[in-house]
């Protein structure tokens, strides 16, 4: 994946983000199912080594879809540890509500119009502010750079989550789950973008120091 820098000749960073998303998704979509499955198992092993997860009582996570780095093994392991795992449910305005994970049988497939189908918690909804109780928030993404800036899919759902955490003066560990090739030197960023504390890939953990 070639890296891109922001151009400042009357252009915003957003076209660069769109192009990067397309390129990264194209690479992901070419991954064989066996590679995706193996990466998910390795990702769970690496993530479970994080001290932040070892001491967490509540973790906000998500269910991976399609060729995203797999999270089901990680969710099962956290649940088996007795961790309270919160999973998102997409709202019509693209904000996220939350529900508790109670095993793979507690998930239901929900189709959101023209967007991809998502596995969401089937139980009671806890409200968008439930995420502020998390000790760790596991974030989806397409890439992260050397400064911890995350590139998401562009829907804005997790921008709202991060803004909600900031308003609540909540300071969970922010961890993005990626493939090894998705850690890059530089990503375009907007002033409202918030860096993550760590990235977990199938081969290890990368931590970021925020200045």
What would your notes on this structure say?
- With about 210 residues, the chain is an alpha/beta fold.
- Helices cover about 25% and strands about 20% of the residues.
- The protein contains 5 helices and 11 strands.
- It has helices at about 15-30, 35-50, 50-55, 70-80, 155-165; strands at about 60, 85-90, 95-100, 105-110, 120, 135-140, 145, 150, 175, 200, 205.
- It has a 7-stranded mixed sheet with strand order 3-2-1-6-9-10-11. The protein has a two-stranded antiparallel sheet with strand order 4-5.
- The longest helix is centred in the first third of the chain and has 16 residues, at about 15-30.
- It is globular.
- Residues about 1-15 have low confidence and may be disordered.
In short:
With 211 residues, the protein is of the alpha/beta class.
Write the layout of secondary structure elements.
Layout: H1 14-29, H2 33-48, H3 51-54, E1 58-60, H4 72-80, E2 84-90, E3 96-100, E4 107-110, E5 118-121, E6 136-139, E7 143-144, E8 150-151, H5 157-167, E9 173-177, E10 198-201, E11 204-207
Parallel strand pairs: 1-2, 1-6, 6-9, 9-10
Antiparallel strand pairs: 2-3, 4-5, 7-8, 10-11
């Amino acid at each position: 994946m070639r890296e891109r820098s922001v151009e400042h000749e009357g252009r915003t960073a957003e076209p660069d983000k769109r192009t990067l998303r397309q390129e990264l998704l194209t690479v992901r979509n070419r991954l064989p199912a066996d590679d995706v499955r193996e990466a998910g198992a390795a990702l769970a092993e690496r993530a479970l080594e994080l001290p932040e997860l070892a001491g967490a009582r509540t973790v906000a996570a998500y269910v991976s879809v399609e060729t995203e780095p797999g999270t089901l093994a990680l969710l099962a392991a956290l649940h088996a540890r007795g961790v309270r795992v919160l999973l998102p449910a997409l709202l019509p305005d693209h904000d996220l509500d939350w529900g508790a994970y109670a095993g793979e049988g507690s998930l239901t497939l929900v189709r959101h119009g023209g967007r991809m189908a998502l596995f969401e918690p089937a139980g009671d909804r806890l409200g968008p502010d439930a995420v502020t109780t998390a000790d760790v928030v596991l974030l989806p993404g397409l890439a992260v750079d050397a400064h911890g800036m995350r590139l998401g899919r562009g829907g804005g759902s997790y921008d709202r989550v991060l803004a909600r955490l900031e308003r609540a003066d909540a300071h969970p560990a922010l961890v993005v789950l990626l493939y090894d090739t998705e850690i890059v030197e530089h990503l375009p960023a907007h002033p409202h973008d918030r860096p993550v504390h760590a990235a977990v890939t199938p081969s290890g953990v990368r931590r970021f120091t925020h200045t």
